[in-house]
Design a protein that fits this description.
This protein has 503 residues and is of the alpha/beta class. The chain is built from 15 helices and 18 strands. The strands form 3 sheets. An 8-stranded mixed β-sheet has the order 8-9-11-10-14-18-15-16, with helices on both faces. It binds ligand BES, manganese (II) ion and zinc ion (ZN). Residues 270, 272, 347, 349 line the site of manganese (II) ion (MN).
């Protein structure tokens, strides 16, 4: 986000300077108006493609520098030729791909014309969204910012030239709101734990009020009154006070519109507590609040695009530290639900935070359904790697909706099994349950722990430990914190609550 990026949609024309981007289909075929705009330089494309063995396959590009006969200083020819059986062209990924090909380029004009058939305004808007998210950088703490190195900030002007610029501009409005939400989530995950701790995180959430979200912050005293003994135990060893934040977006007037709730794990730093983690890689545990970051990013997106939906976001924000005051293995906690929990591992803290957050949400919001996001287990990385988030649910319809939204956005989920035999693994000798079922099926027993706090509410748990941070770069993300889930849940809300899908 340190680069400033200005995106506009303009009438179809070739630029008089900067970089010009055109699209080529099979045999480097260009669209009719693109050919016209290239004028004399068009004759260079065929021979250049031959020399460079450019076949115009999707997600490939050929760069021509200072082509004779063209005002632009650079011509990027982007392939869009599909092979048999290929999925439809993914304009979101294509936008990211083009941004990746033109780093540090200050003026870019895209001639958004299909080599064959036609592309609509929504395609141009998706392209713009992908471009923008690829351009995100987190360089806030780099003090040496030479323009020439990768920490330098550039102001980029991106113009997307197409027939119906006005329609594309309108289609981009909602996506711009989503882009802001994803960027906010990424930044919250990237921020260090000395800057982003429970209180400062809650203050960040409070900023949503500017967009018309109603935000309520509960401090430890208020949580104590409510009996949130599980959440409070996790934060008890930290010098930082815990917080509980409720964000309400009412995009529908009708009093009857039942809310949907999204709940996030917000462990601002997870040392493991007394069951302390090994030192190597512990710094990554600043991202253990990615579930909560996604909720805040989503609320931003929904409010900014004025989603016609009633959505309540809930986050439990704590820091898990070892200290003389810390909770111990062996402690028995009383959760808000009244159920008791034997702590067998203080590093299984996320489920304790969520136990009270889910119960509070079920009792107070009484949502149509609730979805929680959490960087809950390392075991989900063993099972699914970084390709899918783990999906656990007591509801087939909600699961199907999430799977669909996952396919549509590329933020994919994989449903994992649940059942009574797994549930038994967290029964405790001394209390109603224990907070870890041991090594086997670690992600599933964690999900069963959560399930004990949702009652009959249709519920889904997304274990995002593999997707929210430190995942490999993609066409649309090179940031450590990925902002995973904002686009998925924005889509889900559009499909499940609003009249029509965001097109
Ligand atoms: N925050 C971790 C899970 C995690 C691991 C997130 C790797 C991202 C990357 C969680 O609180 C945790 O420590 N889980 C334990 C559970 C165990 C103690 C039952 C784990 O996964 O080892
Ligand atoms: Mn932990
Ligand atoms: Zn954790």
């Amino acid at each position: 986000m340190s680069d400033s990026l200005q995106i506009s949609f303009v009438e179809f024309a070739a630029p008089s300077a900067g970089a010009m981007v055109v699209f080529a289909g099979a045999s480097s075929k260009l669209g009719a108006r693109t050919t016209e705009a290239l004028a004399g330089a068009g004759a260079l494309v065929g021979p250049a493609a031959e020399t460079l063995a450019f076949t115009a396959k999707t997600m490939s590009a050929m760069d021509l520098v200072r082509p004779a006969g063209l005002a632009a200083e650079r011509l990027l020819v982007v392939g869009t030729a599909a092979k048999k059986g290929d999925k439809p062209l993914d304009f979101f990924a294509l936008g990211g791909f083009v941004a990746g090909k033109l780093p540090k380029t200050k003026a870019i004009q895209i001639l958004f014309e299909a080599p064959e058939d036609a592309w609509d305004a929504a395609a141009a808007a998706d392209f713009a969204l992908g471009f923008r998210l690829r351009a995100y950088k987190f360089t806030k703490y780099k003090t040496k910012k030479a323009e020439s190195d990768e920490n330098g900030d550039v102001s980029i002007e991106l113009k997307i030239a197409l027939d119906d610029a006005e329609a594309a501009r309108r289609a981009y409005e909602a996506r711009e709101a989503v882009a802001e939400g994803v960027e906010l989530a990424r930044t919250l995950v990237n921020e260090p734990p000395n800057v982003l701790f429970p209180e400062s995180f809650a203050e960040k959430a409070m900023e949503l009020e500017k967009l018309g979200v109603d935000v309520e912050i509960l401090d430890e005293k208020a949580m104590g009154k409510l009996g949130m003994g599980a959440l409070l135990a996790v934060g008890q060893g930290s010098a930082r006070e815990s917080r509980f934040v409720v964000m309400r977006w009412r995009g529908v007037k009708s009093k009857k519109a039942q809310a949907v709730a999204i709940v996030g794990k917000g462990v601002c730093f997870d040392t493991g507590g007394i069951s302390i983690k090994p030192a190597a890689g512990m710094e990554d545990m600043k991202g253990d609040m990615a579930g909560a970051a996604c909720v805040v990013g989503l609320m931003h997106a929904l409010a900014k695009r004025k989603a016609k939906a009633h959505v309540v976001g809930v986050i439990g924000v704590v820091e898990n530290m070892p200290s003389a005051d810390a909770y111990r293995p062996g402690d028995i906690l009383k959760s808000m639900s009244g159920q008791t929990i034997e702590v067998v591992n203080t590093d299984a803290e996320g489920r304790l935070v969520l136990a009270d957050a889910l119960w509070w949400t079920k009792e107070n919001v009484k949502p149509k359904f609730m979805i929680n996001l959490a960087t809950l287990t390392g075991a989900i990385l063993v099972a699914l790697g970084v390709e899918n988030a783990g999906l656990f649910s007591n509801d087939d319809e909600l699961s199907a909706r999430l799977s669909e939204a996952g396919k549509a956005t590329g933020e994919t989920v994989w449903r994992m099994p649940m059942g009574p035999a797994y549930d038994k693994l967290i029964d405790s000798k001394f209390a109603d349950m224990k907070n870890s079922g041991g090594r086997h099926a670690g992600s599933i027993t964690a999900a069963h722990f959560l399930k004990r706090f949702v009652g009959e509410t249709p519920w889904a748990h997304l274990d995002i430990a593999g997707t929210a941070m430190a995942s490999p770069a993609t066409e649309t993300n090179t940031s450590w914190g990925s902002g995973w889930g904002v686009r998925l849940l924005d889509r889900l809300v559009a499909e499940a609550c609003e009249e029509r899908a965001a097109s």
